[in-house]
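Handout, section B. The chain below has 236 residues.
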Amino acid sequence: MTENARDDRTNPRRAAVLEALRASDEALGVTELAELLGIHPNTARFHLDALVAQGLVDRRIEDPSGRGRPRTVHAPHPGMDRGGQRRYQLLAKILLSQLAGSPGADATAEAAGRNWGGYLVEQVPPSHQTGEAEARQRLNAMMTDLGFAPEPVRDADDRIRLRHCPFLELAEEYSATLCPLHLGLMQGALTEIHAPIAATRLEPFAEPDACLVHLSPAAHSPATTPRPRQRRTRST
């Protein structure tokens, strides 16, 4: 839900316009709506324009029944109301608690992360040989986009600091399951771009303000390792 859509819910007049359209058995014109609500037509038109822009109201032109101009009418957009709260964190907690109680939860989470990491990383052509510097750049770009705020450790090329966790509250409770998923994301990304380095370990909360990712040379050279097939399991 966009910020403007939230504004529509907190604007009493705009909410009244939307509710009047929903309560009506037929589409309403500006004048009809203004008379129904006891407001000026320009006020009704202003709020209708905003609701149409947000996709909450549909506007259409009706053919005139006789002589005269076509009539513009408005009706609420069909479908479930997209206003109101979202509780994605609760959903994530429910799923994590279920996964955490199953055998091999950490391995399952890591495998899921590897699958998605290969999808989320910026792709390279199949014949491209990725160098270490480029691999680090692509890995850092992906982790930055995901909100982990990565930075190299000074005088230690084999480690990366993650200064922010976009799932911090969940990670504090379910680190044994969620952190392997994060490690899997990095492993999948590096495998997908055929990097000469690999993410081997993730230390949750290794420092007061960061987690530590450990890197090492990949087990196989880019010249001898077959390039994995790119997986497309992401749903929209």
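Note. The chain has a mean pLDDT of 87. Compare this with the example in section A.
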